[in-house]
Amino acid sequence: MAAPPSAGRSRRWELDALRGLMLVLMLSTHLPTFFALPLGQPFGFVSAAEGFVMLSAYMAGLVYTQRSMKDGIPAMRKAFLRRALVVYLCQAASLLFLFTVIAWLGMTFDQAAARNLISFYLAHPGTGLWTSLLLIYNPPLLDILPIYVMFMLLSPWVLAYGLQHGWRAIAALSGALWVATQFGLSKVLYDWLVAMTGLSVPFRETGSFETFAWQALWIFGLWMGARHAQTPAEARGAFPRWLVNASIVIAVVFFIWRHLTGQEPFAMGHPVNFIFDKWHLGPMRLIDFFALMILVIHFESWLKARAPRMKWLETMGAASLPVFCAHLVLVLLALALLGETNPDRPMWIDPVMFVGCIVILYIVARLVLAFEARGTRKKAAAEPADANAVRGAGGEGAGALRTSAPPAASSPSSTNPDVPR
């Protein structure tokens, strides 16, 4: 089996553990069990998606800035685009699984939950297939990876501009797009696209996440990662005491509020709920998220010294992209075979299903890391033989090979960006 995530590479175990926690929370939210309500948004009016996007963007900014400092901006751009292709292929494979296996199971077992996920595809299979591959039609549960692909395609140019010219213009544009989204920017652009092309995909089928709102969180994480790559920890300064105290008050109030009222702060349909909205990334949700983020950063040393390390979460976080895709497979299978949460279902099924899925995701992570470790060992074993062969040929080639040798595995620049991994 694989070595621990931190073995043989420079990793920040606390970030892996946080991403592992986000993956478990996403599983608990999506899996049709009675755990979905209590474990959905457990820390306030903030979901696991915000934390996962922020952590992924932070890692991208951190690792790809190190890459650009070491190998140059062109190399950084190529690495970003390769990663975007990997994420896109994962999305394409997930769509294929949904449109074949889940569609067949949903029809065979007559599960409305599965049919509702692909209602547009079932009505228009041809259009559904090609528009989904173009990331236009995004069925529920499969609408997060498309925004990752778009962010990864955009990020090399954003990061290059930020590193060369500063982040003020980027922050201003990002903030303006987020504000415009609160007033219907996405719908305006969708209507314009329909008028220009005759697109037949309904607006509700383009995905729940408002890309022009969520880009603000991605840009912020990208900036923070780039800054931390360039600035030593001791030179970053600390949050003022008043800000930490205000964050404590906000986090406590929202935590209590959420567990008193449920997933929404006010009754369903209340207009004020919009400023807490997840899909538009409403302003009150951002306030809650940044309060929690400030507290995690401020108390990082205290938490790392006292909180127990959960290696299983670190393992899952270190292989977050395969684990995320595996979580989609498990959730889709559960919906196709068992349907939505049912109070008449035997009580033992939900806890067994929930724990069983976590175990499966952990095994997936271990297998993925073991496979990667084996590939790394084979590559390392082959490199000395290659060097000897070149030296045997004599002279210039051997020197060139030593000059271009890859960095040691412990180098921070060799850390996999995992966005998501």
How does this model look, in words?
This protein is mostly helical and 421 residues long. The chain is 70% helix and 0% strand. Helix 1 (13-30) packs across helix 15, helix 3 (48-71) packs across helix 11 (211-230) and helix 8 packs across helix 11 (211-230). The chain is globular.
Which class do the helix and strand fractions yield? mainly alpha
Instruction: Look at the structure and give the mean pLDDT.
Output: 88
Summarize the main sheet: none
Instruction: Please write the string of helix (H) and strand (E) elements.
Output: HHHHHHHHHHHHHHHHHH
User: Share of helix among residues?
Assistant: 55-70%
Please count the beta strands (DSSP E, at least 2 residues each): 0
β-sheet strand percentage: under 5%
Rounded to the nearest angstrom, the radius of gyration is 23 Å
> How many helix segments?
18
Rough outline: globular
- Stretches with pLDDT under 50, minimum 5 residues: 1-9, 389-421
- End-to-end C-alpha gap: 19 Å
Give the SSE layout.
Blueprint lengths: L12 H18 L5 H4 L8 H24 L1 H36 L3 H6 L1 H5 L1 H9 L11 H21 L2 H15 L2 H13 L13 H20 L10 H21 L21 H16 L1 H7 L4 H8 L1 H18 L11 H45 L2 H8 L18
